[in-house]
């Protein structure tokens, strides 16, 4: 298997020692739609769980896309909406060994590098011991779903890294 090494970023022109393979979002997309002065009143948010307006429930999970020719994955930390019952079921079992059945949810993260990802259908696969759930997408022709199913090349991971590059000189 190929080991992922550093790369020269086409965005900033710098050599980076490691190719980023893990990206995340600190809140569901709806958090950013709310006015900053409303967020504290409307959202209960921590690193893994979010409740909006006491009626919309979200959990943070991971879309893990295999990187072809390696043992590694491109990981997107995403938020998924759940029913109230499923949200509290996961919350109750978060730090326990037992596995829960997969549950339906709607992707609630707008991922860069893809066409609209909000409201893609998902299955949330809870994992034991507080490990963030694995998020499976409905098999469709959406590019994110295709990449999850077929994997991505190292070149695609480099392309994403360049697209998301933050130039330290700015």
From TrEMBL:
It holds the Pfam family DUF2199. This is DUF2199 domain-containing protein. InterPro entries: DUF2199.
